[in-house]
Amino acid sequence: MADNIADLGEFGLIEAVTARLPQGPGVLLGPGDDAAVLAAPDGRVVVTTDLLIEDRHFRRAWSEAVDVGHKAAAQNLADVVAMGARPTALTVGLGAPADLPTAWALGLADGLRGECEPLDVSVAGGDMVASDVIVVAVTALGDLQGRAPVTRAGARVGDLVAVCGRLGWSEAGFRVLSRGFRTPRAVVEAHRRPQVPYDAGPEAAMLGATAMCDVSDGLVADVGHIASASGMLIDLDPDAVVVDEPLQQVASALGADPVEWVLTGGEDHALVATFPAGTELPQRWRVIGTVTQASAPGRVHVGGEAYGGGSGHDHFRPH
Amino acid sequence: MADNIADLGEFGLIEAVTARLPQGPGVLLGPGDDAAVLAAPDGRVVVTTDLLIEDRHFRRAWSEAVDVGHKAAAQNLADVVAMGARPTALTVGLGAPADLPTAWALGLADGLRGECEPLDVSVAGGDMVASDVIVVAVTALGDLQGRAPVTRAGARVGDLVAVCGRLGWSEAGFRVLSRGFRTPRAVVEAHRRPQVPYDAGPEAAMLGATAMCDVSDGLVADVGHIASASGMLIDLDPDAVVVDEPLQQVASALGADPVEWVLTGGEDHALVATFPAGTELPQRWRVIGTVTQASAPGRVHVGGEAYGGGSGHDHFRPH
Q: At the N or C end, where does chain B have fewer CB atoms within 10 A?
């Protein structure tokens, strides 16, 4: 096999990559034409897009190509399920330096496939161009299966706030990797490949969720998006903020506060949703707060007080 | 107004950009949530994606931001109409350095809107991240309006080959700009903003086109894609290869061969299609060749001979 993608050539690379990406029944026309054609049985289509840039969103020294593929797919698929929809397909644009090892590009494809296949999602199209650093542009499509989309704007006074999935794990992994360590494996792996509870998105929609989003920027920031879009104040219960065991271990070793990671760490892509009071929630949905009033819209409190820790993340400003 | 996008901040920039992007009736939920929701009345959706990287696909010294917006939209919209579909929406991922002038980001949005608005296409979602160079990742969606997609694979022996739109203009503009000139304006403008005959795509489908693609890589290369996908040999008629007047003027000044630009220049996004013999074509569709035989599949001849000029373009190999 050609060692790098310039040896293989653009069309050779496209051929090698698409050979690794089987097409499911929802793909009416797959890669190789001007565009793909997908089934949209609902008569509506959900669409979201994210860019990942090397050394901004991932580092080749920290993550294998297959990890980057998993993560790139996961963060887009999470946005689809956060609307209450079932993901159907991805398109992927890859910008890559000419000397990128062919194995890296194929590993990326394997990671995309690995994340998509259990969900019956296909990588149905894409683009490959030259770039000094690796750029991965993913667009995910989804099907609402007849349901109304669950937006960020529907939370009402008295609703429960509940979360499903991990909080703070990716941040803990990032801290570990930043110090040059590779363990504990659990949090490092969580940083490389988020574990997204995909089926909890449609589940929440069927349970009557009034608002939902995925936790990509951090719990306080993303709950803030719901509070802001809904014109509500949301109060999180500090006693309900659980710090999972691996985070306690890492925080203790690093002398850090794991509660801050849980409240502000992003990239785990848990789902946070609001439900009418009294909704019977499956056990994996943990109630962490309430929607309290519309007189202070767009604010998030923790235990009745404005949260003092770092929150939010601006892509264009230094950390 | 903040001079650069770091001053404005990620959320300020998103707000300023989305304020410039009105949403049409096909957008059921626009920017601002985890994902957009679009109408897909046909029960199928066409999707295509392209990456543009600064200094690879455009140069800030050669093109204004509004031009880059037009071009980024155009090359994706052209892929949608080349399936015979009507474009409905774009999503746009922008990677940008923190010191990017705010005016540049807003100009990009204006260009995207300017290209989309006449087609009733909305920019329905996107992503913004930090990047050392500008990255524009566009995904376009389209609606087949009940028609079968026109793929590259349906050309049959005896079909006419016809083209609609400009050939070689963008290449001529590129040559002029590469020499440090800014005129003739007609070809320079053509390089900055392709003039795509969008409605010719659905028109070709309704006329019974058996295969179609847009000319993004060059006429010989893209006709080659049809020949290859259809398992046919396509013979182009050298007498039908028209060199438009502005190209003759530029070629004469530069001592170059304009026929090569017409046969191999990309990025004008003309449409090339095959039609059953005897199809009555509107005047803007110029017959330029025939589909001749299946015994030498995937080849393109010009006047019965293999074309000797440069053709095709490999993104990962030096020009």
A: C
